[in-house]
Every structure is written in C-alpha cells, then in structure tokens.
Amino acid sequence: MRHRPLSPIVFFAALMATGFGVNAPASAQDKVRIAWAGSTPSNTPTWVADQKGFLKKNGLQAELINISASTIVIQALLTGEVDMTIGTAATLVTSRLAGSDTVVIFANVPHFVDHVVSAPSITSPEQLKGKIGGVNRLGTTSDAGLRIGLRRFGIDPEKDTQIIAVGENPQRLAALSKGIVHYTIISEPHVREAEKLGFRDLIDFGTMKIPFHWNCLVTTERVIKTKRPMVAKVVRAFSEAIHYIKTDKEGAKQIIGRNLKMSDPEGLERAYRAYAAAFPEIPKPHTDGVKTLLDDMAPKQAKAASADPKTFVDASFVQELENAGFYKQLYKR
Known about the structure:
This protein has helices spanning 44-51, 54-57, 70-78, 89-97, 141-151, 169-177, 190-196, 221-247, 249-260, 265-278, 288-297, 302-306, 316-323, 326-330, and strands at 3-4, 30-37, 60-67, 84-87, 102-111, 115-118, 132-135, 162-165, 183-186, 200-204, 211-220. With 333 residues, it is of the alpha/beta class. The protein has 2 domains: 3-15 and 25-111 and 211-330, D-Maltodextrin-Binding Protein, domain 2 (3-Layer(aba) Sandwich), CATH 3.40.190.10; 115-208, 3-Layer(aba) Sandwich (D-Maltodextrin-Binding Protein, domain 2), CATH 3.40.190.10. Helix 1 (44-51) packs across helix 8 and helix 9 crosses helix 10 (265-278).
C-alpha cells in the first residue's frame, strides 16, 4: 500500500463489484483510494487499517493519500480522484450544502476531543476575548471546532476574538511559542508538549462530549451506488482497526508514535487514553454529529437552517454489521 502526496487529478472508471468476501484473492481485490489529513491521533484507525493489514485482509487493494488539509481532501473526493476520505462534519456539511452528494458512513470520533491551550496569563475561557487564536486553515475541522467550542462559553468567534490560519498541530504550537497567537486548538500528544513549554491546558473539549463527527469516513452517494461491496469492506476493515486499538494498547501506541514521529512515553500514553476512549466500539454515524454544525451555521445560512441532518448520514453499513452480530463477535460479547 502506497503513501504519496496528492497527484494531479485523475478520474477512474467505476469498478465492478467483486463481492463482500474477506478472503478474496489478490486478483479479485477491490481497488480503493482513501485521502486523509492531519497530524493527529484521531487518524489512528486509518493508520491501523492500513499498516496492520485489515484493508488487505478484507479484499482491498488500498492506496492511502496524505493531504495537508481537510478542505483539500474533500475536493479530491468531489472530483472523483478518491473514493472516500477521512473527513469531518465541517467539510461534509459545507460540501453537501453546496450541492454535493457527500455522506458520512462511519464515525471514528463522534465528538470533540481537542483542547484549547493558551498563554499562561490566560486563566479562564472568558479571557480569550480580544485575543488571537490559531487554527490549521480557515474552514477546516480545527476552525469549525474552535468556533463552535468558543460559543459554548459565550464567546462570539466573529466579534470577540480573531482567528487566523497557522498550520497543523506542530505549526500551531510554534505560533503559540512565538507569540503569533495567544491560544490555539490542538490535540494530544501536542497538549503534553504545550504544557512542557509552560502553556496552559485551558479547555478540554473531550470532557464536554459535544456531538460532532470529529473524524469519520465520508464518501458520496455515487460511490455507494456503484461500489457498495467495496465500501462495505472498508467499513469492516476500519471496525477491525478500532477493535485492535482498544485491545492492543502497546501496538496502537507504537503506530501512533511512528506516524506522529514522536517517542515521548507520557505523550503517547495520554494520546492513547484520549483517543482509545473516543473511538466507539460500534462506529455508527448519528444525525446529532451533523446537527451541531447545522445549528451553528443556521443563523447565517438559510440552507443550514432548513437542512435535514438525516440526509447527511448513511448508517446502513455499520447497521448491517451490527444486525449480523459482527460487533458482538468482535468484542466477544
């Protein structure tokens, strides 16, 4: 399985379904291209599905493509260059409101998990007013998540604070260190790094359980219609990846460390604890994870106010596995 930067846009003809068998020979494997973004442990199921062989085991010849931002990832999906993405409610909702047929089929992380870290002089969320915050890119997951989270504390992200784009988690931490921003939204294990540098872990969104598909598998209705058996295999492979994460702590930590290029034992332990708890045993997408964003967008966007959250979700793949007793057998229950 290859990992490489996004190539120039190439359109692929729809592949004929090859069945759901998990032991299909290599010649009968379904090809699938999956794009993902972000240096965050929320992508651990993606790394595990690939690097521990669960995609191959389920009859898939998979190519995983690392792209720099979720807004670019969704464009790759919409142009047909990839079959599915590791996306978020933010890119899913904005693309569908713009007229696309994107749907979430699998919830890796069904709620907020990131933290707001700040300069040590900021001791309460209210003190973020008048300050500058940092996100990856405007319109990405970190941006949408930060804005929704700030509103939970009565802070208007449009009027009370300035939010600027400074890059991924390491770049955001660097911007905080240089005083370019006063606070930022980052994930474990970068929270650990921020604390070591003297910054404050101001808000832990993970404890608030705000419904929001922070990390999820997104595809299009077109792909589901033409390649449903392939999509079902991906859902099964990712379900097995989450089981691996939850049941092989040391193996999962090794994969997190390798993909984040870090070896700090405490940082890896904190990252594992935060995300292993966030990954659901039955990763069924729910409308609540979409409704949070629609409600946030509704005051400014009529389409969001009138949109039905159900149209953004296709839970049938996980539901079929659940009905067949797959998850009970997987977790021996």
